[in-house]
Amino acid sequence: MSQQADVRAVEIARRLALDQDIACKSDGYASSAQSYADRLAQTGLDKTQIRGLETLTYTTDKVSDVTDWLKLRVGRDEKRDRWARKGIGRELLATLERLRDDAREIADEVKREHPLPDKDIDLERQVHLRLIREYLKHLAAHFEYVKAGGR
Amino acid sequence: MSNLAGILTLRRLVAAWSDSSQEEAARFVDSHRDLLPRRITSAQLYGLVNVVRSAHCFADVQRFVRHQGKKAERAGRRDVANYWEEVDQTLSSLRNNAKKLQQLIDSLPLTVDPQSGLDMLHLQLAGEFVQHLIAHSLYWSPIPKER
Q1: How many cross-chain Cβ pairs, A to B, lie less than 8 Å apart?
Q2: % of chain B exceeding 90 in pLDDT
Q3: ipTM, 2 decimals?
Q4: pTM for this model (two decimals)
Q5: Number of separate domains in chain A
Q6: Which residue of chain A comes nearest to B140, CA vs CA?
């Protein structure tokens, strides 16, 4: 019973550490995400599509759902005036993929500082998805702000 | 393991597997890039995804893929027939992945026997793989021309 309580305490500590690390990274993403939002606002995209992407990231449990969604939108943009305009969709995809490095860093640190009996090999992937959510949250917010005449 | 716990565990395992299989699907597409989009058309690819999503068992998917291969063979398009043969082999081989996932959980939820549970899981993995396959096949954004 005591061992169970110890594991539970580590789980809680790990969760708090994760929240803190992700929040810290998220603040660092704001400027880069806003830059994408400014560029996307120059394309033919409207807020429905950006909201669609944001909603997807919050409802899926797979990183690949987000990247597949973007790939399809880039591929279907035959006029190249929306997701495929000046390679913006492709760049955004690469940026979201690169968040995996931050996810690995966070997951490794949290596992080292708060070790649990199980190896939790899925942690990096889950952190990656959460970082993508944070990134796209900034992007979507700034996109709407720009579209409403904020800049 | 309760039914709900089983469902959640399975969902998480499939999600992790799906993310890890995306790279393999992209490699598959890139190795057949010369056939896209003219010989393997978007319509054929959407046909595949529709079949995978509506199929009740993996055999339905296999039937469709083999039919596509035979059609290409009859039309004398050996390269296209090879493509569908490779799709068939790749999707069929996912049964081993399904078996591995099945071993990781005590019981598959909402199934009466392990065999149909395995087939359901195989079909689900095929659906994930095909989603990656289609997305990467249609993904095409050339470097913008300098003005």
Answers
A1: 58
A2: 70
A3: 0.91
A4: 0.91
A5: 1
A6: A75
